[in-house]
Amino acid sequence: MIERRRSVARQGSVARRRDTAPRPQPPREVLLTVQPDPRMTLIKLRKLGEGAQGTAHLVQDKRTGAQYVAKKTKNMIETFRGLPYEAYILAHLLPPHPHIVRLINYDYEPGGQRRRGWMNEEFDALYDLCSGGNLSSIVYDHHKGGWVPESFVWHVFGQLADALTLLHEGRDCHSRSDPGGMYRGAKPVVHRDIKPDNIFLATEYKKGMKPGEYPDVVLGDFGLATTELYPACGGTINYLPPERQSSRAADVWSLGSVIHFLVFGSPPSMMPYSKKVTDHWEGNPRTRRMMYLPRFYSEKLDDVLMECLQYNPRMRIDSFSLFKRIMRDAPLSIGTRR
């Protein structure tokens, strides 16, 4: 009898513990991690550019004189609880990184509703300014009077591979305690629109600069970025891979195309501008023809580039292996900022 009472008491105790155990809570609303200074008043200075996802302007804080890039989004791709992919990825998913653009704030609540508004009503996103412009202007300026130095090619290659390693595998190569280790909560991100116009220089690049003096390279414009796998490829057609599917391997092809552009002034194959020929080009991936680098570039650089431009995505090098390969083969003075 006594043993039965003990058994019943134990059962009652277990039942009470189960009743009082914390129940799973519904996901909390995502709130932006970086809040702006409420005293900030933005003045529009000039238009920087316009694309499929929106318009970018150079703006200035009236109180401090600091300059930023402000964007007005046209086509907002919603995802995580209603927030645009770009806001979710840059403000909530990725840790700060020297080669990925910093989103200061996004003026949307979950569900796509505007907040009370701390910015000029024309804009909904504010970013750090990369005052050196984009990679396209550097290349066009260089090819007027010579080739881009190999040291600068390695510099761009290494820093972009570093950025892709964080996006694709969640590996933080800048961690002092665990270089190359995965950060907590890592989730693969595919950029889907890597091209020279979306790659920026933190400060001005000048001809004659030596290794160690080059400005940092920053990957921007995450308007098409996603954490999902899409069967169709987004982005700019000249930089799309042969398989025409969005994936981490597709991003690596696009990076190789950017390096190809940096050397030759064009991606592996420029799309012809006529509807009939364009349809053939899109339907026949073999029309993408990469060129081997000129002889005054090293064989190691050429080999690494061709690893990115493999037709078969399964044979293409992954971003972390690419980063390690560049760190191994590049001159000692070239690489990512530590």
What share of residues is helical?
A: 25-40%
What overall form do the CA principal axes indicate?
globular
Whole-Å distance between the termini?
Answer: 72 Å
Beta-strand content: 5-15%
Number of domains: 2
Oligomer: single chain
Radius of gyration: 24 Å
Organism: Ramalina farinacea
Protein name: non-specific serine/threonine protein kinase
GO molecular function: ATP binding; protein serine/threonine kinase activity
EC number: 2.7.11.1
Structure description:
- With about 350 residues, the chain is α+β, with helices and mostly antiparallel strands.
- It has two domains: about 40-130, Phosphorylase Kinase, domain 1; about 135-330, Transferase(Phosphotransferase), domain 1 (Orthogonal Bundle).
- Helix content is about 30%, strand content about 10%.
- The chain contains eight helices and nine strands.
- It has helices at about 1-20, 85-95, 135-140, 150-170, 250-265, 275-285, 300-310, 320-330; strands at about 40-50, 55-60, 65-75, 105, 125-130, 170, 180, 200, 215-220.
- The strands form three sheets. The chain has a five-stranded antiparallel sheet with strand order 1-2-3-5-4. Strands 6-7 form a two-stranded antiparallel ribbon. Strands 8-9 form a two-stranded antiparallel sheet.
- The N and C termini lie far apart (about 70 Å).
